[in-house]
Amino acid sequence: MKKIILICLLFCIEKITAQNSLPKPTKAQLAWHNMEFYLFMHFGPNTFTDLEWGHGDEKAEIFNPTQLDCEQWCRVAKTAGAKAVIITAKHHDGFCLWPSKFSKHTVKESKWKEGKGDVLKELSVACKKYGLKFGVYISPWDRNHPDYGTEKYNEIFVNMMTELFTNYGPIWELWWDGANGEGPNGKKQVYDWGRFKATVRKLSPHTVIFSDVGPDIRWVGNENGIAGKTNWNTLDTDGFGPGAKAPSTDTLNAGNKNGKYWIPAECDVSIRPGWFYHKAEDDKVKTPEQLFQLYLKSVGRGANLLLNVPPDGNGLITKFDSASLIEFKKLRDKNLTRNIFSHATTYHLFGGILKKAPAVTDGNFKTGEKITEAERESVGIETKENKKINCIVLYEGITAGQNCSAYKLLLFNKKDELVKEIHGTTIGRKRIITFSAVDINTIELTIEEQHKTTVINEMEAYLIDENLIEK
Ligand code: FUL
């Protein structure tokens, strides 16, 4: 008897420990999840040389965006419904878009504004004015800096980041490119990631740091803007690092089911084939419908979408890009803002007991319905009449961790006939599910497998244009 009690006790302790050790987002990461969609801007000497990877030997004077207007960039971002802008402060060519004291390849050496210009200053000020968060991409790989490939360069890189945080903050997201090629002396740098991280944490503890493996945000494993259908916000990074030391791209794409750390995925993709502006790509800008598809496959799978929109050599976003972005916003507004089930009645069914579940339709993301027992509990929303829908949006409460690993949706009509059954894996912060339109009045969600209690914040249903259904 005693033995049985002891075994039960050990089992309980193990369960509680497992539950308590579930990774959770930090406050900064939680706020990051709510950003959903923002713009990336690749801008620098490549914009003028028509290259994607500058060699670092280009003359600084070629950088001369005579009509540069960061407020125009911000207006475009705002109109597109983006919430932030991340700029390439320094790409692999080493050119600094700010007058760094630690490089001789900067705006200061350029013709632009007779060397008195500062793109980061203009953009950070414009972002504040337009209520956009400001983020910075900085490539450790530097094909220009004479010290690259020596221990001294790690110090240089730390000094450069210190300039960024001191003069242009607050910086909301910092983007570390993991690329590690040769510098001008033919040597590769051994990056001191530990020191880089400690520097940022000290200067700006609330900044979220992106790299292939975090520490806060991970790369999604491709540059097509597509998160895994299964998308865990957790990742195992012990023994891994950015660049060549990263886990496989498949792992980055889906995360790790029982991953040790909360490191959600960000989907970076360009609106054009290249990251930098090339005139020859003016007719290759992604269409609003293509952008909508990307939105479904990134934000709709619980990741964030970082869409690159490169300014041209004048220093402006072209009409081709802005036109597509504006229409993309209209598509989201038209299709994903009228929740057909917003006034539905709710229910929570457990062991024959029926309760209401108002939290899933109250539009408040701080309230949620708890599902403690997988398979045995369902949460449903029900309208009086049948409605035509082809899209369901679920929001999982992730404050205490990500729990659902398999869910089932049953769609019934007024006659109580089962019209459609949908199965999926993770839900995550947001899950957009599309299918051919059906006439139904009840959407019932069952969690089939979970770590522990899944919280469902909201359940919504839409009728989107048939041609927008996820392909
Ligand atoms: C990559 C870079 O090599 C590309 O040029 C681009 O900046 C992309 C976002 O990251 O690693």
Structure characterization notes:
- With 471 residues, this protein is α/β, with parallel strands linked by helices.
- It has 2 domains: 311 residues, TIM Barrel (Alpha-Beta Barrel), CATH 3.20.20; 124 residues, Jelly Rolls.
- The protein has an 8-stranded parallel β-barrel with strand order 1-2-3-4-5-6-9-10.
- Strand 2, helix 5 and strand 3 form a beta-alpha-beta unit.
- The N and C termini lie far apart (58 Å).
- The protein binds beta-L-fucopyranose.
- Beta-L-fucopyranose binds next to loops.
Name the structural class: alpha/beta
Fourth CATH level, the homologous superfamily of the largest domain: Glycosidases
Number of helices: 10
Rg value:
24 Å
Largest sheet: 8 strands, parallel, barrel
Mean pLDDT value: 95
> Order of strands across the widest beta sheet?
1-2-3-4-5-6-9-10
Please give the domain count. Answer: 2
Strand content: 25-35%
Helix content: 10-25%
Distance between the termini: 58 Å
Specify the overall morphology.
Answer: globular
Number of strands: 18
The name CATH uses for the topology of the largest domain is TIM Barrel
The CATH architecture assignment of the largest domain turns out to be Alpha-Beta Barrel
Concise structural overview:
By secondary structure, this protein is α/β, with parallel strands linked by helices. Helix content is 25%, strand content 26%.
